[in-house]
Amino acid sequence: MSDSINEKVRCLIIGSGPAGYTAAIYASRANLSPVLYEGIQPGGQLTTTTEVENFPGYPEGITGPELMEDLKQQALRFGADIRFGIATATDLSAAPYKITIDGEKVIETETLIIATGATAKYLGIPDEHKYAGMGVSACATCDGFFYRKKVVAVVGGGDTACEEAIYLAGLAKQVYLIVRKPYLRASKVMQDRVFNTPNIMVLFEHNTIGLFGENGVEGAHLVKRMGEPDEEKVDIAIDGFFLAIGHKPNSDIFKPWLETDEIGYIKTIPDTPRTTVPGVFAAGDVADPHYRQAITAAGSGCKAAIEAERYLSEMGK
Ligand code: NDP
């Protein structure tokens, strides 16, 4: 990291999901003059969803991108300085903390709110890379449009997989839901929706071991009851392959300084967004392996901003 400081701020927020924007709203209203860097995916994961039905205050629902734009406008209204840019390195060895943006600019900040969220996981089979952008996707709502009247598969058995399968079923001719266990982990309401959608076929106890196709995905190699005596190889013909097997927290650049769990979620002091480094707070999915909801992320962003304000006032800054 370069030693030359380009800018000094009181409150730096990294990330632009519900946690980051809510922190920006609260920090602005508390006169902390926050600077927020939006990161790789401005607006965060909700910009890749369609309808959000469970964010309080929207009785008719709202689209993910609209919700994020509303949050951003609310933060701008109170003076938050929202910028494009990605945090690429950190030095949290002593306050004020140094954050490098886009590998060049160094910002020195009294308080840091980490709201970098989480990123979709892949299975780890080589074919996922081979067919990247050629039939493999981790976002049904981004790419589903390309599969109208086609056949697709979704991998995973959680709420995300069910949601994506239901969404794709509205576009595609046929959807396979590939589930490695003999049951779905998703909530009952999502399971019911899947089972009541005629063009979704759930393939329980199936694992994907490869994809095939000439100029793009034309099918998947599956194994039914892998490792069991009655193990069976099954090939399905598909045009698109969607991953929905969970997420990895975006915490890598903070790991030298902050404690994380075995998956990479930043550990915070229970019931608070405080990390083990004073003045550094973590909010939203990067620190939440349990709830991972927009509203809980927003709530923790609020807490982080309140903590930052209290920390600065205790330090007399
Ligand atoms: P989850 O961690 O809940 O589920 C991941 C799914 O992927 C599991 O079924 C898991 O299988 C499967 N999986 C993981 N790794 C592999 C692998 N290598 N091969 C095959 N399958 C694999 O993640 P989600 O993203 O679904 O949900 C995250 C959180 O967000 C949850 O708390 C969920 O409730 C919430 N959510 C809520 C929504 C809503 O309320 N509308 C919508 C979307 C998400 P296994 O079960 O065998 O471990």
UniProtKB/TrEMBL annotation:
<keyword id="KW-1015">Disulfide bond</keyword>
<dbReference type="InterPro" id="IPR036188">
    <property type="entry name" value="FAD/NAD-bd_sf"/>
</dbReference>
<keyword id="KW-0676">Redox-active center</keyword>
<dbReference type="InterPro" id="IPR005982">
    <property type="entry name" value="Thioredox_Rdtase"/>
</dbReference>
<keyword id="KW-0274">FAD</keyword>
<feature type="domain" description="FAD/NAD(P)-binding">
    <location>
        <begin position="10"/>
        <end position="301"/>
    </location>
</feature>
<dbReference type="Pfam" id="PF07992">
    <property type="entry name" value="Pyr_redox_2"/>
</dbReference>
<comment type="subunit">
    <text>Homodimer.</text>
</comment>
<comment type="similarity">
    <text>Belongs to the class-II pyridine nucleotide-disulfide oxidoreductase family.</text>
</comment>
<protein>
    <recommendedName>
        <fullName>Thioredoxin reductase</fullName>
        <ecNumber>1.8.1.9</ecNumber>
    </recommendedName>
</protein>
<keyword id="KW-0521">NADP</keyword>
<keyword id="KW-0560">Oxidoreductase</keyword>
<dbReference type="InterPro" id="IPR050097">
    <property type="entry name" value="Ferredoxin-NADP_redctase_2"/>
</dbReference>
<keyword id="KW-0285">Flavoprotein</keyword>
<dbReference type="GO" id="GO:0004791">
    <property type="term" value="F:thioredoxin-disulfide reductase (NADPH) activity"/>
</dbReference>
<dbReference type="InterPro" id="IPR008255">
    <property type="entry name" value="Pyr_nucl-diS_OxRdtase_2_AS"/>
</dbReference>
<dbReference type="InterPro" id="IPR023753">
    <property type="entry name" value="FAD/NAD-binding_dom"/>
</dbReference>
